[in-house]
Design a protein that fits this description.
By secondary structure, the protein is of the alpha/beta class. The chain has helices at 42-60, 76-95, 105-113, 120-130, 139-154; strands spanning 2-8, 13-22, 25-35, 64-68, 99-103. It is globular, with a radius of gyration of 15 Å. The termini are close together. The mean pLDDT is 92.
Length: 161
């Protein structure tokens, strides 16, 4: 059995989801979203992300984490903000000595839905099949749970001693 923390970093709203993987069986533990105040200074927003992810790790004790890879936006400022948010989230994982695997969005969609071109509605529908009855906190939490499920399906968690 492995507990996987899935993360979908964003400066405005970072999604997180925790699942348990026992062989091919998956079960939901928790999920949520961390919204930051857009009027707050950047250091305060990054500190909030770090502290909130650290609290999730402390509360749920994951064995490992999986994070969506950064993608390059047309707007370089947006890409930079995303990278800074990812840095805060990954630093929280590093502080807890969690092994973190990163997955491209297309790979996550392919592992969860069967095609890398799946849209958000298809990912949400498959999530309801894989984790029946789960109340998801929002779109960012859905994406984070999908990252965790993809990591479980890809079998990376089995490498942990």
């Amino acid at each position: 059995m492995t507990i996987i923390l899935g993360l979908d970093p964003s400066l405005s709203c970072t999604g997180w989801g925790v699942i348990r993987a026992e062989g091919s069986r998956l079960s939901h533990i928790a999920n949520g979203q961390i919204a930051t105040d857009p009027a707050a200074p950047m250091p305060a927003r990054l500190d909030m992300l770090y502290a909130a992810v650290a609290a999730v790790i402390a509360a749920h004790g994951p064995d490992c984490a999986a994070c969506e890879e950064v993608f390059v936006n047309k707007n370089p400022q947006s890409t930079l903000k995303l990278a800074q948010a990812r840095g805060a989230v990954l630093a929280a994982c590093g502080g807890a000595q969690l092994d973190v695997r990163e997955h491209a969005a297309r790979l996550v969609k392919k592992a969860v839905v069967g095609t890398g071109a799946a849209d958000k509605a298809q990912v949400q529908a498959m999530l309801r099949v894989l984790l029946p009855g789960v109340a998801v906190a929002g779109a960012d939490a859905t994406d984070a749970l999908a990252v965790a499920i993809a990591d479980a399906h890809l079998g990376h968690h089995r490498q942990i001693p």
